[in-house]
Automatic annotation (TrEMBL):
The lineage of its organism: Bacteria, Pseudomonadati, Bacteroidota, Flavobacteriia, Flavobacteriales. This is YtxH domain-containing protein. It comes from Chryseobacterium ginsengisoli. Residues 64-78 have a biased composition (Basic and acidic residues). Residues 58-78 are annotated as: Disordered.
Length: 78
């Protein structure tokens, strides 16, 4: 068996173990797991939005510099 096959089997095994443990846990433990998942999802969305905002700011700054250089070139030529 290759490393990919072993890794895939290990991942499936961990998933099955997690499912079994979740299925046999109490309602309070299930709610705690749901809260952790929702919190992680919210943090991931916030991180993605922050990253998108930063990328838009950088793109805007680059466009401003391009416009500035273009205007200087036109003033020099004209």
């Amino acid at each position: 068996m290759g490393n990919k096959t072993k890794g895939l089997l290990a991942l499936v095994g961990l998933g099955a173990l997690a499912y079994w443990k979740y299925k046999n846990s109490s309602d309070e433990e299930k709610q705690a797991v749901k809260d952790k998942i929702n919190n992680a999802k919210d943090n991931l969305n916030k991180w993605g939005n922050d990253l998108k905002d930063k990328a838009n700011n950088v793109a805007s700054q680059v466009q401003d510099k391009v416009d500035e250089v273009k205007n200087k070139a036109q003033e020099t030529v004209g």
